[in-house]
Structures are given as C-alpha cells and as structure tokens.
C-alpha cells in the first residue's frame, strides 16, 4: 500500500469512525452512564467486530476483483458518489440526540454482532475495501484495510466512550457542531483525491 493510499484510507477510516452514528451514540451514552472501564468490552466489540466485518467483505471482494478487474472501477464510482453524499450529510447533520443507556452496558459479543446489522458499518466496510484496497494485492490488501480500520477505529470509539457527557455537551453547541461537521465533511472529500487520480 502506497503512503498516499494509506493516508487516504486512514483519513477515511477516521472520519467515518469519529462522526456521529449508532455505535458512537451508544458508546457516548455508555461512557456517560457506566464509566469508561465498564464500557471497554463494548468499545472493543465495536472496533474488533467491525474490523472482522471489513475483512470478510474484503476477502469476498478480492476474489471478484481478481476474476473481473473491471468490477473494481464499476464499484469505485458508486462508492465515490456515496462518499460525497456522506460528506453532505455530515456537513448538514443535526446535533446528536441525547442518549441514555439503562441497565447494563453492551457486552463484547453484542457490540460485535451489532456491526452486521449496522448499515453505516457495512457501507464503511464495502467502501473501504472497494476504494482503498491496493489493486492486485488480493487477500493481503483486504487484511491491510481491515488492520488500518481497527487501529483508527479503536482510537475513535474510545474518544466517544471517554468523552461521555462532555462530547455530547460540546456537540450541542451550534457553532462548534457546524465547525466539526464541515471539517469532517471536507476531510472525507479530500480522501477521494488519490482515488480520482488513480482512475484518471
């Protein structure tokens, strides 16, 4: 994986992982209600569970790309369009709703299983493997993408879990929310630059 592609993948993984979504809202609520220590199994389930999902998606797509190289370009274009749509949604996102977690935190297995029914997690995995896996790398490319996602994602979800009510309060400020959302959207669009240059 080239340094440019690695940087673009890491930026995409960071933006996709740090922005508000089902996992982050649940982790924020869990951190606020149960504390960081009791939330650790939940955040590890999210990060490792999503990494496994990304790997499985990549291994399947790698076979398709090996058999039909043109399929990569055909899949890259709609995924690029999805990234632009996601950037628009992020830039114009409303403040995250106040979440409250009752009972006990999610377990590792519950959080890992949730990734398979979380549309954002699935789309992130498909987009990452389709757009950022090195051409011709086969299964090693799928492993590399999954590895980068795990490394970046663990930091992102940990930020939400540790932030708890502080993160929720910070994002509740309209001015700060606007800056945060537009910055994340701009970073997401910038991750497309190496992909567009590769297709040209």
Kindly describe this structure:
This protein is mostly helical and 200 residues long. It has one domain (3-199). Helices cover 80% and strands 0% of the residues. It is built from ten helices and no strands. Helix 3 packs parallel to helix 5 and helix 3 crosses helix 6 (119-132). It is globular and about 50 Å long. Residues 98-102 have low confidence and may be disordered.
Please mark out the parts with pLDDT under 50 across 5 or more consecutive residues, or reply none. 98-102
Largest sheet: none
Helical content class: over 70%
How many H/I helices?
10
Distance between the termini: 19 Å
Average pLDDT score:
81
Order of secondary-structure elements: HHHHHHHHHH
Strand content: under 5%
Domains counted in the coordinates: how many?
1
Rg, alpha carbons: 17 Å
**Total E-strand runs:** 0
Structural class, from secondary structure content? mainly alpha
Shape: globular
Features:
200 residues, mainly alpha, 10 helices, 80% helix, 0% strand
